Amino acid sequence: MKKIQISPSILSADFSQLGNEIKRLEEAGADMIHVDVMDGHFVPNLTIGPPVIKALKKNSSILFDVHLMISPVHKYIEDYADAGADIITIHPEATEDLKLSINKIKDLKKKVGISLNPKTQIDGIMEYLSEIDLVLIMSVNPGFGGQKFMPEVLDKVKKLKRLQVEKNLDFEIEIDGGINFDNSKKAIEAGANILVSGTTIFKSNNGDIKKKY
After folding, report:
1. CATH number of the domain at 5-204, please?
2. CA 118 to CA 54: how far, in whole Å?
3. Catalytic member of 14, 31, 36, 155
4. What pTM, to 2 d.p., does this model score?
5. Where exactly are the structural domains of the chain?
6. Alpha-helical segments (H) within the chain
7. C-alpha–C-alpha distance, residues 137 and 121, integer Å
8. 14 has catalytic annotation
C-alpha cells in the first residue's frame, strides 16, 4: 500500500501570510503544498498566478502540487513549470489535445496529473494512465473552498484503484474537496493515497496536520 500523504490546500490559507503559512505546514509535516490555480473562466473564481508561486517557492523546500483549473491550459503549462511547480495537474476538458499537454509537462521534467471533476468519467483517460503520475479525483465541483464532500465519487476512486492493481500501474490517487478527518478514512479505504484538505487544516484544526487522518 502506498504511503498516505497530506497536501494542504493554500486556497484556505491567510493570503496575507502565505509564506509563513507554508513554512508552518512544512514544519507540521505536510508532504506537499496544493496550489489551486483558477482563472474565472474554467471555474468561477480567481486565485494566484506564476509570479506568486515563484515568490513562494523561493523560500520553500516542499513539493508544490499545482492544480491548473484554467482554459485553455496548454499555453500556460511552461509558465507554471518555470514558476516552480513540481506536479502539474490539468483537466481533460481544458486542453484541445490531452496527449500533447501531457507530453509538454513531461518534457519540462515535471510530474503529470490529470484531474477528474465529479461528473467526468475515468473512461476518457484510460489510455493515459500508464503515462501519468497522478489522478486527482474532485469530490466537489471545483471553484471554491469549503464545499461539502460528495461521497458518490468514492466509487470512481475504487474503480481507479482496481485498474491500478489489475494493470500494475504506479500513479498516485489524490482526492480533493470537502476532505475532513471523518470522510478521509473512507477515501483511504476506497484507494486514495494523497489527501488534499484546506478548510479542515486551516479552519477546523488551526493548521495542525499532525492529527492523524
Report:
1. 3.20.20.70
2. 30
3. 36
4. 0.93
5. 5-204
6. 18-28, 50-58, 77-83, 98-107, 154-166, 183-190, 199
7. 10
8. no
At 114, the amino acid letter reads: I
The per-residue pLDDT for range 127-160, each reduced to its tens digit, is 999 999 999 999 999 877 778 999 999 999 999 9
Q: Residue 70 in contact with residue 46, Cβ under 8 Å?
A: no
Q: Name the residue type at position 71.
A: S
Identify residue 166 by its one-letter amino acid code. Answer: E
What percent of the chain stands above pLDDT 90? Answer: 83
User: For residue 213, what pLDDT is reported?
Assistant: 41
Does residue 19 carry a pLDDT above 70? Answer: yes
Q: Which of 31, 39, 65, 176 is catalytic?
A: 176
Q: Which of 99-103, 105-109, 204-208 has the lowest mean pLDDT?
A: 204-208
CA 109 to CA 119: how far, in whole Å? 30
